[in-house]
Design a protein that fits this description.
The chain is an all-alpha fold. The chain has twelve helices and no strands.
């Protein structure tokens, strides 16, 4: 735990020295709200206010998900600069290194979620459930974020800069091919099925249920049991990502 906190503090210190990283992490989801909500809200839902109720829970999930590219780039930068090799020479466990990075990135995501929520409330989004349900919705967003962060660490250490570059072209299709922005029932059959089984859709739908927002209506199993799948998908991803990241870290430079 002590090693994890020390490595988390190192990352936080890096952000303090380069505050533009924090500013970009907060500004991006705000830009997405204005782009999707005000530019396309009327076309999708008839008016911006109605679409915002559907959009905001999905935007919480997208904010958590898009952190994967930031994590991967930071991991590669540390490796290229020799920072990772110096850390590997210290008497600390592999798990501490991984969880230190993960915890720091989760803190950054939490800041982004707080700012995003404040902006959503100012624009008219409202919670229609109790505080425990709302906290559970945010908890599911962070659970999914932790899974993707661990996956990003493993992929970055294994594939290098090429994998990081590829991630930028994958995150956008994965986000749009989900129920984050629209109900999959409006998509053609095969795309609707893919969107319904997308992990982002499960967490988006669960967040909508837990905050009392409008939910997707497609008939697929994940949509019928969103909270179950919002927990199940991250657990499966973590079961794959943690060993992958630990193995890649141990073999680094071998």
């Amino acid at each position: 735990m002590r090693d994890t906190l020390l490595l988390t503090g190192r990352t936080l210190g890096h952000w303090r020295a380069h505050p533009y990283l924090l500013i970009m992490a907060v500004a991006f989801p705000l830009l997405m709200i204005f782009m999707m909500g005000f530019m396309f809200g009327g076309a999708i839902a008839g008016d911006v206010g109605t679409y915002l109720q559907l959009l905001m829970p999905g935007m919480l999930v997208v904010t958590a998900f898009f952190g994967i590219s930031t994590t991967m780039q930071a991991v590669i930068t540390d490796a290229d600069r020799g920072v990772t090799d110096r850390i590997r020479s210290l008497p600390i466990t592999t798990v501490s290194v991984l969880w230190g990075r993960c915890l720091a990135d989760l803190l950054l995501i939490i800041v982004s979620l707080v700012v995003l929520t404040g902006a959503g409330v100012l624009l008219g989004w409202r919670f229609h459930t109790g505080p425990l349900e709302v906290l559970a919705a945010y908890g599911l967003c962070l659970l999914l974020a932790a899974a993707f962060i661990c996956l990003g660490i493993g992929l970055a250490l294994r594939g290098g800069q090429a994998t990081v570059n590829a991630s930028y072209t994958v995150v956008w299709p994965l986000a749009f091919l989900s129920s984050v922005f629209v109900d999959p029932v409006t998509m053609p059959g095969p795309l609707a099925a893919i969107a319904a089984w997308n992990p982002l859709s499960a967490t988006s739908n669960a967040a909508r249920v837990l905050t009392g927002s409008p939910v997707a209506t497609d008939p697929h199993l994940p949509t019928q049991y969103p909270i179950l799948f919002a927990v199940g998908w991250p657990v499966v991803l973590l079961a794959v990502a943690i060993p992958l990241a630990a193995r890649a870290y141990r073999r680094l430079g071998a």
